Amino acid sequence: MELKQRHLQQACNQGLLTPEQVTPLWNYLQNLPADSATFRATHILFYLGGLIAIAAMSLFMTLGWDAFGGIGILLIACGYGVAACLVADWLLWRQRQPIPAGLLAALAVTMVPLAIYGLQAQLGYWDDATHTEYRDFHRYIDWRWLMMELGTLLFGTILLWRYRLPFMVMPLAVVLWYLSMDLTPFLFQEEDYSWLRRQQVSMVVGLLMLGLAFYIDLRTRHTLDFAWWLYLFGLMAFWGGLSMQHSDSELSKLGYCLINLLLITVGGMIGRRVFVIFGGMGVAGYLGYLAWDLFEDSLTFPFVLSLIGLGIIWLGLLWQRHEAQIQRQLQRHLPAAWRELLAQRR
Fold first, then answer.
1. How many Cβ atoms sit within 10 Å of the Cβ of residue 196?
2. Which of 176-190, 204-218, 295-309 has the lowest average pLDDT?
3. What letter would DSSP give residue 193?
4. Residue range 250-273: mean pLDDT, rounded
5. Most confident by average pLDDT, 49-63, 66-80, 315-329
6. What is the DSSP string of 28-45?
7. Distance between CA 119 and CA 272 in Å, rounded?
8. pLDDT greater than 80 at residue 253
9. Which residue spans traverse the membrane (predicted)?
10. Handedness of CA 295, 301, 306, 309 (dihedral sign)
11. Whole-prediction pTM value?
């Protein structure tokens, strides 16, 4: 709810504030930095500009960058990173603008793998490699990226400790997701690793990321939300690896559905809708499979599938109507620290 001056006057009429407190309190709230208020149009511009800058220096790198050579790429990446940190310092400590400061600090983190790549290229590390372009880092799975990923995690953690801004977790979570894929060819011989191995490693790394997110959530329950990005990419790694597996066993498929129901339950308990989204997609996929298996080549299949979809929408409406009550019932079984965390988040 957006706070207005009439709300303070209503509180005064109810005896919660004295008439002398209304005007000074309203003036104080009006003078707070913009980022402490609700989400505004300026935030959209902040994120749009920041994400474009991050994408330009990561996803959309062109072949022309090879003309700079390894040392050139290293110097440019370091220059960008230092400049981004200096501007982030100014925005955070002088201007009290944490959102753009977090975006600039995240940009500095994305410069770390580019800098390491430039150093490796200068030392001849990529001379005999299949993937010799930096943009391949975001497109192909290769164990040679591990040094760039580990270096990014190290320097990114140091920068996160300095600035303590939640958006900085985003590039670290992305790198952890990449790490879950690139670990497979490193852990297993080239002839031994398969899609099944990749899915298994992805699931394990995803679970580790979720465990880290739970830990960070508890440790930062009195401050900002640093765990959201880890939840998102941890679920992408775990749920993606789980959903890509194939089995002819009906029991295994039922187990898949039960795991997704567990994700929905966990999401309701800890107040994280991202769990409900992934779990809901898994349950919907299982129900779609059942409909296809039971009504294959049947004229009733489209009707059955549409009824399943409408049923899921109806369940969503029920959840929305009774979400608070459901969460209260589920959260009764949580430890005291988690209940305190949820109270702080509210």
1. 13
2. 295-309
3. -
4. 87
5. 66-80
6. HHHTS-GGGSS--HHHHH
7. 40
8. yes
9. 44-65, 71-92, 104-123, 143-161, 168-188, 200-216, 228-245, 251-267, 274-292, 298-319
10. positive
11. 0.74
Q: Is 66 exposed, middle or buried (0-12, 13-18, 19+ CB in 10 A)?
A: middle
What span, in angstroms and rounded, lies between the C-alpha atoms of 59 and 345? Answer: 33
Residues 236 and 180: beta-carbon distance below 8 Å: no
Q: Is the dihedral of CA 177, 180, 186, 192 positive or negative?
A: negative
The burial class, CB within 10 Å (0-12 / 13-18 / 19+), for 78 is middle
Q: The tokens of 39 are what?
A: 């989400």
User: Count of residues for the chain?
Assistant: 346
User: Of 159, 190, 164, 191, which Cα lies nearest the Cα of 175?
Assistant: 159
Neighbour tally for 261: CB within 10 Å: 15
Per-residue CA distances from 103 to 45, 110, 165, 182, 266 (Å): 11, 11, 9, 26, 30
Helix, strand, or coil (residue 16): coil
- Measured CA distances, 241 to 236, 273, 309 (Å): 8, 20, 24
SS3 call for 151? helix
Who wins on pLDDT, 253 or 130? Answer: 253
State both tokens at 19.
């008439």
- In angstroms, the Cα distances linking 40 to 6, 26, 99, 170 are 21, 19, 11, 21
pLDDT value at 159 more than 90? yes
Structure-block tokens of residue 12: 């005064």
What does the DSSP 8-state code read for residue 221? T
